[in-house]
Design brief:
Blueprint (H helix, E strand, L loop, with lengths): L4 H21 L2 H6 L6 H25 L4 H34 L7 H30 L1 H8 L2
Helix pairs in contact: 1-3, 3-4, 4-5
Length: 150
């Protein structure tokens, strides 16, 4: 069985999302601002997972183009962890973002902070939908079959 266009598209999307994740992580200091109220050890674990998730996306995405099943399984595993942690932590992150935008630290004009917050909410929802689509796509029998034949 030949590699489907869907696998190719998702492989490229996974690589791009990995790059986006690494760029979004920024420095630990910037990252930790969004997790105020969370114990420092947990923030370190979340940051380490975020870096791992980005690197994993880039590496496994390239291996998915070769239909390597271990890469499909790894992406599924880290994506499930990401979705679950997102559901648990997004409330805290969004509350901290709202406080950050309202502070003088953000250096964002007050008239656009509402728009910035709405953009962040939409971006978070889109990222979650993307991750859910990765889980759905790579667990479909026709897609799994392509990886088993290699």
């Amino acid at each position: 069985m030949e590699k489907s266009k869907g696998v190719r598209v998702y492989a490229v999307a996974i690589i791009a999302f990995g790059v986006y994740t690494l760029l979004g992580a920024g420095s630990y200091k910037q990252f930790s601002v969004m997790f105020q109220g969370v114990p420092p050890a947990v923030i370190i674990c979340i940051y380490a997972f975020t870096i791992f998730y980005g690197i994993c996306g880039i590496y496994c995405g390239s291996k998915i183009t070769r239909l390597e099943d271990w890469a499909r399984k790894m992406i599924l595993s880290v994506t499930v962890i990401s979705v679950l942690s997102g559901f648990l932590l997004n409330g805290i992150v969004m509350a901290n973002l709202k406080n950050f935008l309202a502070s003088n630290t953000a250096q964002i004009p007050p008239e656009i902070t509402g728009s910035v917050y709405k953009y962040a909410v939409i971006l978070t929802a889109l990222a979650t939908l993307y991750e859910l689509s990765v889980i759905y796509f790579f667990t479909r029998p026709r897609v799994r079959e392509q990886f088993k034949r290699q």
